[in-house]
Design goal:
The chain is α/β, with parallel strands linked by helices and about 450 residues long. Helices cover about 20% and strands about 15% of the residues. The protein has helices at about 120-130, 150-160, 180-190, 195-205, 225-235, 255-270, 305-310, 315-325, 365-375, 425-430, and strands at about 80-90, 95-105, 110-115, 135-140, 145, 160-165, 240-245, 275-280, 290-295, 300-305, 410-415, 420. The strands form 2 sheets. It has an 8-stranded mixed β-sheet, sandwiched between helices. Strands 2-1-4-5 form a 4-stranded antiparallel β-sheet, covered by helices on one side. The chain is globular and about 70 Å long. The structure holds iron/sulfur cluster.
Length: about 450
Amino acid sequence: MPPSTPSEPAPPDPTPPDSLPPVPVSPQLPRSEPTPPAPTSPTPSAPTNPTPSAPTNPTPPAPTNPTNPKPPAPPAPTLPLLAVRDLRVSFGPVRAVDGVSLEVSHGPFGMALVGESGSGKTTVARAILRLVPAAGGTIRFEGQDVAGLRGRRLREYRRAAQIVFQDADNSLNPRMRVGAAIAEVLTAHGLAPRGGVGDRVAALLSEAALDPSLASRYPHQLSGGQRQRVAIARALAVSPRLLVLDEPTSALDVTAQARILALIRRLRGERGLAYLLITHNLAIVPGLCERTAVLYLGRIAESGPTSALLAKPAHPYTLALLSAVPEVDATARRSRIILPGEAVPGPAAHPSPHPAATAGSAALAGSAALAGSAGRGGPAARAGAATPPGCPFHPRCPLAVDVCRTEVPPLRTVAPGREAACHRAGEVLSGLRPPGHGTASSSRIGGVP
Ligand code: SF4
């Protein structure tokens, strides 16, 4: 199998952090092509770059103080913060993750992993954090092989990479006051001076937009959004360099979702955070993530810069996900692509090589279906499921042709910085849509809740 993600030598990010749209205010994507790569302004520390203000002096500009030259700025990190290559995770006969590759740059940076329930995205996250064993592939954090970490280095890694789970109820001890839950982390890692733990807890709660007086409450005395912010504050207590956000908003109401997303956005700027955002909701991605990877049945269906991928998908599955995003603006609404069957066929559907195609008319009917499926799939739901031959999406794909039923489409480059695993990616990228679904309906996306 070809590598899933290009080993691109750190391509210029077409959407630098500063250019991300504001999260809650303007969720719409630009209609035009993604912003081209910045004209790669050389780093100002390069000594060979003469200043343009000396046109009359043909000789190379001498340093202003040759006896005390300014020390060169430290080189920008060349290694990505996290590099996952050909990751495979199996649970018995089930391949939950099958050859996933992705990279997370140093912060501030956001990488989105999007897919339905059962697509394997949470398993990818757990493998990255060594919560489940990898059956193959490599995971490197700042160049270190995560699988080989032991002892002190493993503890350091566990501090540097933190996870915030979908449901804070499962990560907070119901019998422990939230202040004590945060203090426990600080004390365990020796991160607060004696007598200074309370102040540090208060500061972390404030950073998570919570009143420090809530430290004396128990989790059940807080709202869902407040509990999630406590979970984020707890993760931040160890100053992680990578945060894995596993469906951080899917258990919250719309208002709480907006506050959590705004908090993530603020923290990434203030702390220079890098994060892997796992979500089924494409609508929250544009304001938070520079790059997006779409996962289907444990494989990357498509990846690329978020703005380009959402403006012009190259994979029919991305089209279907986009069509399920609610759109407030009636003029921007897309006609919904109803996919037959489910991504996670049940054991009863297994005798057929195309189980999803025969699973009746259960439809991927919009955001409700996607939201409802969040967090309930995973490897257990796929137990006994077999990946269809050919393209794994072909039993549900409205654009499938004969070759799709027999040949696995390789993940290949379809545009600068973009990859897709689809025999018809070029056509989809050029505007091919399922019958009755228009040609350019994906140029906008619904609002961030
Ligand atoms: S390879 Fe064929 S079945 Fe798979 S997504 Fe592309 S068009 Fe659909």
